[in-house]
Amino acid sequence: MHDIDRLVAGIAPDPGPGRTPLAGELLEEITSLPPSEPGPRRRWPAMRRGVRRWVAVPVLAVLTAALSFGVAQAPASAALDIELVDGHYVITVNDLMADPEVYEAELRARGLDIALRLVPTSASLTGQMFVINDLDLLRSGEPVPAEGPIATIDGPGHCRRLTGCPVGLKVPVDFDKKAEVTLGRRARPGERYKMPPGIAMYGEPLHCVAYINRTVAEIRTILLDRGVTPSFISPGQGSRPSAPGDWFVHDGVMAADGQALLLVGPERRISHHPPQPGC
Prior knowledge:
By secondary structure, the protein is of the alpha+beta class. It has seven helices and eleven strands. The chain has helices at about 25-30, 45-55, 60-65, 75-80, 100-110, 135-140, 215-225; strands at about 80-85, 90-95, 115-120, 130, 150-155, 165-170, 180-185, 230-235, 235-240, 250-255, 260-265.
């Protein structure tokens, strides 16, 4: 998930690749939402430009690399499991609610300059990882190579995510760059997602629902019946609780547990979304 055609796949309405209609508006809306818990919040001035220029970086990595959150601390021994295997550190995250400083201290002790950021997300994306192998290169505005020395390790068995189901990392022992790993943790009650899943991803309320270009009235009814309250955005406008019932839904993400954010407009749009796997 590193090329430009898949930059916005993380906020697509299904698990398939591709640029979604006006996904930039959704990304801008999500990044402008205030955090629901105390703690510092940083914004990169180049965030909007980053969607165009940092063509080799996953959109969720760009989104979440700009944010930091305080979470409950846990003992370092419980947070990470690090083993040396064939010239690589094999790292497994055991505690998704630990303070990032706990992780980083364990990594620094092994000579690794890797920042771990935990961001709230849905159950469907809990445990999802995105890796930036070279932060200095990223911040200079240069494209980050599609393949880097840090690799994620997928768990055994079938995975329904396009981006894989990672359970750990594999890092060369001589890795000497600054890197960042963004890891999705389960959102607390009332907490807004900073790793927003597409509304039709597996495990989300519109999975296997052909919702694109259906009316706001239709999709609102479906969502409410499934316990989800929608909000709406359209080009040039921020989120609002209602939209004309005869407008059409173009895209959507989950913004929090039981809360959806839909991109809508007065006209239908051409859709290039592939069929959803398993539907």
